[in-house]
Amino acid sequence: MAGGISLHAVDVARGVPAEGMEVELWMRAPTPHQVAQGRLGANGQLDHASVRGDGVEAGEYEALFHIGVYLRAHGGAQASPFLEVLPFRFQLRDATQHVHLPLKFTAWGCALFRGS
User: Fold this and answer.
1) 115 assigned to some structural domain
2) Domain with 16 in it: what CATH number?
3) Which CA distances in Å does 30 have to 5, 25, 54, 57, 59?
4) Which of 16, 44, 80, 104 has the fewest CB within 10 Å, making it most exposed?
5) pLDDT, one tens digit for every residue, the chain (116 residues)
6) For residue 90, what are the domain limits?
7) Is residue 116 one of the residues assigned to a domain?
8) CA–CA dist 101, 116 (Å, integer)
């Protein structure tokens, strides 16, 4: 896949994709603006034109994963989460390369990295 930024989240405590989690993608520099916003689908990924490269250019970005709201919606021990909104800032130097951001999380911690 050429270009684009994909957001993906997996609730590892429950062993399921984080369907319904609200996410946002912002360009911070050179010109601040929102690139994408929405809820993750059944596969735990955001279905948005930015995944295919629309509106994506070189610059500084921030992805926001709204973990707290998602966890409260699923109750149990997760009803009072430690994490609320997880920001992840990164640089995109070559807008022709695809950047995949997989988030693995529980109510108490997470791992977020550039995937393939």
Assistant:
1) no
2) 2.60.40.180
3) 17, 15, 17, 10, 6
4) 80
5) 469 999 999 999 899 999 999 999 999 998 899 999 999 999 999 999 999 999 999 999 999 999 999 998 987 555 667 889 999 999 999 999 999 999 999 988 999 989 87
6) 5-110
7) no
8) 8
- Is residue 19 in some structural domain? yes
Q: Residue 87: is the preceding peptide bond cis (ω within 30°)?
A: no
Q: What is the DSSP string of the chain?
A: --S-EEEEEEETTTTEE-TT-EEEEEEEESS-EEEEEEE--TTSB--SGGGGTTT--SEEEEEEEEHHHHHHHT-GGGGS-S--EEEEEEEES-TTS-EEEEEEE-SS-EEE--B-
Q: Structure tokens of 36?
A: 């994408």
- Global confidence as pTM: 0.92
Number of independent structural domains in the chain: 1
Residue 68 within a domain? yes
